[in-house]
User: Which sequence fits this backbone?
């Protein structure tokens, strides 16, 4: 736990946002995020959860209703389009720069630089590590001034299904709308679990996922979730971890060689940081 700073050390509350809707992530994910923030972010800070179900959330977390998109949600898409509602002119009375963090994130280092880096008026995303030459951003961890770009939500509302069909993912649409105004975090702060920790296909069979030096947040876009991979599972319904040979035997027996990539040894550092 961080030591409490002197009263004059901080005069502005750091605002952290998360969103929880549906049943994929329970209240425990939000409560874990609150505890991780308490360890890695200098007070004063406030976690605000925008949610359709406040049950079970820590009283220290401020809960606000899930913001409305104001239009039909796209269908047959993999993008998390509910997140576009963050870009409205109003967000339930909130203001100033806010750091958004996806619930399937593991905080492993100091978060204060996410608030001090760059101009407070800037929108700062992580690079889309899966497409490093595309110039696209990734919205697992991003900072934005609330209400600063209402044109993004207004454009989405005009034809949400066409936008989803064109861009596929909410973060691609956000990157397109921001264009050359988009900025990125310094390299190494935010890491992608599959790409930077698990590593290329052969490595996951030779060693557990590593924690890269200098990391501050580990993100899990596209899975697996930290709650599963910490125990060596890829999905909640995966068999208990039995080692490399057991996994390969199951693949051979089923003929599903596409599952070769869906393997990870148990990851002990997740329990150390995610709790």
Assistant:
């Amino acid at each position: 736990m961080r030591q409490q700073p002197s009263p004059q050390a901080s005069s502005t509350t750091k605002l952290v946002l998360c969103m929880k809707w549906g049943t994929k992530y329970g209240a425990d994910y939000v409560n874990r995020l609150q505890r991780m923030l308490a360890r890695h972010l200098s007070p004063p800070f406030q976690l605000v959860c925008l949610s359709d179900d406040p049950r079970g959330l820590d009283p220290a977390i401020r809960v606000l209703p899930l913001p409305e998109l104001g239009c039909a949600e796209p269908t047959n898409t993999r993008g998390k389009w509910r997140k576009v509602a963050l870009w409205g002119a109003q967000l339930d009375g909130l203001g100033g720069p806010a750091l958004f963090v996806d619930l399937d994130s593991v905080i492993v280092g100091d978060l204060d630089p996410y608030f001090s880096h760059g101009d407070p008026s800037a929108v700062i995303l992580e690079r889309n590590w899966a497409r490093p030459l595309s110039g696209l951003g990734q919205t697992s961890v991003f900072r934005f001034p609330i209400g600063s770009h209402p044109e993004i939500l207004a454009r989405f509302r005009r034809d949400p299904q066409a936008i989803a069909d064109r861009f596929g993912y909410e973060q691609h649409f956000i990157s397109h709308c921001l264009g050359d105004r988009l900025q990125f975090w310094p390299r190494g702060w935010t890491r992608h679990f599959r790409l930077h920790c698990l590593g290329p296909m052969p490595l996951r069979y030779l060693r557990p996922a590593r924690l890269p030096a200098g990391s501050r947040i580990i993100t899990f876009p596209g899975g697996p979730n930290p709650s599963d991979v910490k125990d060596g599972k890829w999905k909640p319904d995966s068999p208990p971890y039995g080692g490399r040979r057991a996994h390969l035997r199951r693949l051979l027996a089923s003929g599903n060689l596409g599952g070769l990539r869906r393997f990870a040894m148990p990851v002990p550092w997740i329990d150390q940081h995610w709790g």
DSSP finds nine helices and ten strands in the chain.
